[in-house]
Specification:
Blueprint lengths: L1 E5 L4 H17 L4 E7 L3 H8 L3 E5 L8 H25 L3 E4 L3 H12 L4 E5 L6 H6 L5 E4 L2 H6 L5 E3 L3 H8 L5 H4 L8 E5 L6 H14 L5 E5 L5 H7 L7 E4 L5 H7 L2 E4 L3 H10 L3 E3 L9 H11 L4 E2 L7 H13 L1 H14 L4 H14 L2
Parallel strand pairs: 1-2, 1-4, 2-3, 4-5, 5-6, 6-7, 8-9, 8-11, 9-10, 11-12, 12-13
């Protein structure tokens, strides 16, 4: 099987794509892959380093003033021509787009050449690229009921994020061992994405000062950019507050902490539900179409998480919420149980089966 995978711009598009490809390799040792993305974003560095074939398209999003949009539209038309050449050279059996504007070029070109196509939508709000491609593709895979309801029912399946399969199959460590915390002591992990959040950090400076006197440990991820500032300002905190700049094994912490406090990125929530963790979500309001809040509301409505909007976030409210949850084990257990019900630990397997079905109908 020969597969072109396109995932452009952000890790939220790229890492689910990589997870699916890694799974397919375990099922079909002869499968060949070609990644198509941008020439200058995250995927253009990471994918070649992992040993995969890679082709970059010089495409831009349709943003900016009218003149810039017109210029980018011409660039897009040029990328369609280049995409057709890539398709003719690689001769894929199927093309799968995971979002980001490069996906529009290669998936649209494949559709015009009658090559089977599939798109994957990670968020509850359908991204612009996938909106453009809805009528052109053979199969649509999504992760949230809200998105599923908006896609055509005859070709859409709700199968989840491939990252969910990865975290449920990897070897997980215990937070108590990682941070030398007594085994029965409760723990809270707070992480606002890999880069951190300056706005949340400001609130957490006061919150952490209150939390240091409580009977639990806190792992607070500042983000690399803010670590030195936070470390200096909070140098007087006691040993129950652990400030770190970055965590490279979030699944281990998610699986073994009592509460995970996080943003509502698609990959993060897929991991939280797959691992059945109790979570307090603070969605980022600085994202396209406010999609993180909609992602989070899917969990909240299913009683699988609690949420504080950033505009409502204060130190007192945050600390009060944490204390309430930690003192009510039945509430934590309920959040975990409902999170498990939403989890899609077999996402990779299920998506792979849909790929095979799509090719059978060719």
């Amino acid at each position: 099987m020969k597969i072109i995978v396109s995932a452009g711009g952000t890790g939220g598009h790229l890492y689910p794509a990589l997870a699916l490809v890694e799974y397919i390799k375990t099922q079909d040792a002869n499968a060949k892959f070609l990644f198509v993305g941008t020439t200058d974003r995250l995927e253009s560095q990471i994918v070649p380093e992992l040993g995969y074939q890679y082709r970059g398209l010089a495409v831009k999003g349709l943003v900016g003033n009218p003149l810039q949009k017109l210029k980018n539209a011409f660039i897009f038309m040029k990328s369609l021509k280049e995409s057709k050449q890539i398709l003719k050279e690689f001769q894929p059996d199927i093309v799968i787009g995971f979002g980001g504007y490069p996906s529009a070029s290669i998936v649209m070109a494949a559709s015009r050449l009658k090559i089977p196509t599939m798109i994957h939508e990670q968020n509850s709000i359908i991204g612009l690229t996938n909106k453009v491609l809805i009528k052109r593709v053979n199969k649509i895979v999504c992760c949230y009921q809200k998105a599923y309801n908006e896609f055509p029912s005859n070709k859409t399946v709700l199968l989840g994020n491939p990252r969910a399969s990865v975290v449920t199959n990897q070897e997980l460590k215990d937070i108590h061992d990682l941070y030398h915390i007594p085994a029965k002591r409760q723990t809270v992990v707070i992480v606002m994405g890999s880069l951190g959040s300056s706005s949340v950090n400001r609130v957490m400076k006061e919150a952490l000062r209150q939390m240091q006197y409580d009977d639990y440990d806190v792992i607070y991820v500042t983000g690399k950019k803010y670590y030195d500032e936070m470390k200096e300002e909070l140098s007087d905190l006691n040993d129950s507050i652990h400030l770190v700049n970055y965590i490279d094994d979030m699944p281990s912490l998610i699986s073994s902490c009592d509460i995970i406090v996080s943003r509502a990125g698609a990959t993060t929530l897929a991991e939280i539900t797959a691992l059945g963790a109790a979570s307090l979500i603070i969605p980022s309001p600085y994202v396209v179409a406010n999609h993180q809040e909609y992602n989070a509301r899917e969990l909240v409505n299913a009683k699988a998480a609690r949420m504080i909007l950033e505009k409502d976030l204060t130190a007192d409210r945050f600390v009060s919420e944490i204390r309430y949850l930690l003192k009510n084990q039945s509430v934590l257990n309920s959040l975990k149980a409902h999170a498990c019900q939403l989890g899609k630990p077999h996402a990779c397997q299920d998506i792979y089966q849909e790929i095979l079905k799509t090719l059978e109908r060719k």
